[in-house]
Design goal:
three-stranded mixed β-sheet; 56% helix
Length: 276
């Protein structure tokens, strides 16, 4: 989700808006959202990042340090900026009406669209961005450009979602949260066409066409939702200590779907078709 230049999910929402012919009129969704103001969001998001940092330390990386969270709505919606050492989190009312409206298109109605935004961009992806910070710190690289020039992009995004799910499963509210989120993400993902051509794999196509996908928000959006669904499908077996250990070893060829390193047949209805 973070990672430049592939900060395309906001753009996929705008493209879908035009593609589906949805009105760009603003709406006020009746959503029982977690945060009622920016101060509460900043405090809550920072607590998530700090909780992730504590969990990673307890899972085998005691020297891991966190980053501050700032509530600021950027074109990327949510991202970690490695150069500025900051996670930026969006606020619903600061988004343009077109982006707000297409959340409803992806979800079925206005309230459901606001719920999708709340679950992903105010909660789940906050930890996802903290996981990207962990990847960056583990890489030993010094800036955005160096990291994204050298990273395995498919593994990077898939792994960040695996870390996020593993963390949420450790929290008191995490199981219920992920169970509620799974069908909502699946519904949104179903709105997007599968971009993977015949004769290749999702991982190969993503890595071989990284820059092009970054310019095609519909294709990148399909991938990001699929990464989330892959991790959610494996939520009962993902282990934060195992993921931390694999990150420390830097194993280039672990058995995996995406970068989840577990049984590829565990949930075949949800998983990207990768070579066994």
């Amino acid at each position: 989700m973070s990672g430049f230049p592939l900060r395309a999910l906001p753009r996929v929402l705008i493209v879908l808006l035009l593609w589906a012919g949805v009105s760009a009129a603003a709406f006020a969704a009746d959503c029982a959202c977690r945060y009622t103001d920016k101060a509460a969001l900043q405090s809550g998001a920072q607590s998530m990042v700090d909780g992730f940092v504590d969990a990673v330390r307890a899972s085998g990386r005691p020297g891991f340090t966190g980053v501050p969270v700032v509530v600021e709505t950027t074109p990327s919606l949510i991202l970690v900026d490695f150069d500025r050492r900051t996670i930026f989190v969006p606020w619903w009312d600061d988004m343009d009406p077109a982006t707000q409206a297409v959340f409803a298109q992806l979800s079925g109605d206005e309230a459901a669209g606001r719920q999708l935004f709340d679950l992903l961009f105010q909660q789940f992806f906050v930890v996802h961005e903290a996981a990207h910070w962990l990847q960056f710190r583990a890489s030993g690289l010094r800036d955005n450009d160096a990291f994204f020039d050298q990273v395995d992009h498919y593994r990077n995004e898939s792994e960040a979602n695996a870390f996020a799910v593993a963390y949420w499963m450790r929290t008191s509210e995490g199981v219920a949260f992920l169970d509620a989120m799974a069908p909502i993400v699946a519904k949104a993902h179903a709105m997007l066409p599968d971009p993977v051509p015949t004769g290749t794999t999702a991982a190969a196509y993503f890595n071989d066409n990284y820059e092009a996908l970054g310019r095609d928000p519909m294709q990148y959006g399909w991938y990001q939702f699929q990464f989330v669904l892959d991790a959610l499908a494996q939520r009962e077996t993902l282990s934060l200590p195992t993921l931390v250990a694999e990150l420390e070893r830097g194993d280039p060829e672990p058995p995996r779907i995406g970068a989840l390193w577990i049984d590829p047949n565990a949930a075949p209805g949800l998983l990207v078709d990768l070579p066994r």
